[in-house]
Amino acid sequence: MVLDTGQFTDWLRAVPLREPDMSAPLVVVLAQGTARDTELSAAPELPAIIVALDPRGALPTGWAQQADVLLTTAPGAPAPWVAVPPAAWDATLDAIALCVAGSPLASVALVQVLRAGVGSGFAQALLLESFAYSTLLGGVEFARWRTSRRARPDRAGTDGSVRSERSADTMYLTFARAARRNALSAHMRHALAGALQLAVADASIAHVVLRGEGPCFCAGGDLDEFGMASDGASAHLIRLAQSACRWMEPIRRKVSVHVHGACVGAGIEIAACAGRVVADAGCVFRLPELGMGLVPGAGGTASITRRIGRHRTAFMALTGTDVLAPVAWQWGLVDAID
Question: Do strands 284-286 and 262-264 pair parallel, antiparallel, or not at all (unpaired)?
């Protein structure tokens, strides 16, 4: 569905009067003129993903309240816009449409969580994310992904953990599961949360430095463990209790994360919570969870949005695109490139 501004205004006014259409929740609107002329905003609970297009690169004002993603052809566009070269325009729209068509429930849940998180405290944003993630674990889209995924052979001896060392007033933490590209297992999550709890409790720890061994910082959550919890309610409580972002938040100003290679899913969600993120020049960032019928579940809807805003976070998740280090630095996803 592609609408002009007037049609979009009529559509927004009619939404409360009809049942949500989850077979086609993507709405694309040509962003022309000032969006405030519509005198309407997209409510947090609106069951649709709204993408505003600015093909002329005019950067019309006011659209941040109405849209979940804002795309423009203007080079180097300021936040919350995402600059897309004209040659990539159709491919970007196709990627969003394909994602929404494949996981409409998760896509709607994502933008609802991001909208509702605006103005919320960090802890409340984590809570919203965990509720949505736990709900989707019991959904048809995640079940379909699990069924389609080929079982992998057992990889005994590759569990690894999080190594913790202390030197003077600095705690050094290292993801030590290089054989699995530091895929974050439940064991690693528990170890990382425990180390961060210690850093919160021990005032003599003035600095915390987190790195990853091997070819990449963290390739995301361990897919072999996804969906193993039989009780979604209990999984929600465990996820919050062992959330690295929850324990990093109180001490974020003294935490620095050094990332390299692939930073996928949990890899960038956790890193983004730190006060300082340093990336190597070849770093690549990606949020792939919607393709699994899920939303980011390691704190990303809170940590990443605090750095780049909800619109660019939605763009990353809805396209599953690779964000390279220079763009990540330009957006503020990382603080420096080393």
Answer: parallel
Helix (H, G, I), strand (E, B) or coil at 333: coil
In 73-220, which ranges are E strands? 82-83, 161-167, 170-176, 207-212
| Structure tokens that stand for 120 in this block | 């919320």
All structural domains of the chain, each given as residue ranges with its CATH number in brackets, are: 2-102 (no CATH), 121-151+158-337 (3.90.226.10)
Q: pTM of the predicted model, to two decimals? A: 0.94
Question: Directed axis angle between helix 89-102 and helix 300-319, to 10°?
Answer: 110
If you ran DSSP here, which 8-state letter would residue 334 be given?
Answer: S
Q: What Rg value do the Cα atoms of the chain yield, rounded?
A: 20
Q: Give tens-digit pLDDT for 1-37.
A: 789 888 888 888 887 666 777 777 999 999 987 765 4
What phi and psi, each to the nearest 5 degrees, are found at residue 117? -75, -15
Nearest to residue 187, comparing CAs of 156, 217, 162, 219?
162
